[in-house]
Input
Amino acid sequence: MAYSKRDMFLKRRLRVRNKLRKESSGRARLSVHRSNKNIHVQLIDDVQGHTLAQASTMESELGFVGKNNTDAAAKVGSTIAERAKKAGIETCYFDRGGFLYHGTIKALADAAREGGLKF
Output
């Protein structure tokens, strides 16, 4: 039986989320959502159920740079790292959802690491 792209996405998402639940020790979760046009990132405290910081390419200063979406993702990654520092967060878990770790997701993660977030 062949799985559809959507089924594979959902399987990856559950696998990633279950790993995070097992290993989480009260740390914040850096959740990433990518659409065809934009990328959204949130730092979430799962214990209290609050969003601590967020960044997105929907914000005017973080919009797309030229034709390359990875540049915009890198901008969002460095911005979320700055906002996490302001919120007093240094370490978190990276929740990529069902998205593969390459392209814009990898660019975002690398920029957040360079900005000082540890995951």
Summary: The chain has a mean pLDDT of 90. The first helix runs from residue 5 to 23.
